[in-house]
């Protein structure tokens, strides 16, 4: 079985920086937040109404 030699390549200068940024952008592409995790105004309103229904007024 042959062995591959992995020597670190150091790229100096603007070309190396540009290449590094391009590779990083491809590896860590921004992702859109899943729709089920995004806050929904109807869900927040539903929770507020539930809390209001549980609140009791003390009369004395």
Describe the secondary structure blueprint for this structure:
Elements: H1 14-27, H2 41-54
Would you mind describing this structure in some detail?
This protein has two helices and no strands. It has 60 residues and is mainly alpha-helical. The protein starts with 13 loop residues before the first helix and ends in a 6-residue tail after the last helix. The mean pLDDT is 71.
Q: How would a crystallographer describe the biggest sheet?
A: none
User: What count of helical segments does DSSP give?
Assistant: 2
Strand element count: 0
Strand content: under 5%
Basic shape? rod-shaped
Structural class: mainly alpha
Low-confidence stretches: none
Average the pLDDT over all residues and give the rounded result: 71
Q: Assembly state here?
A: single chain
Order of helices and strands: HH
Provide the helix percentage.
40-55%
Distance between the termini: 89 Å
Radius of gyration: 28 Å
Please provide a brief summary of the model.
Helix content is about 45%, strand content about 0%. It has helices at about 15-25, 40-55.
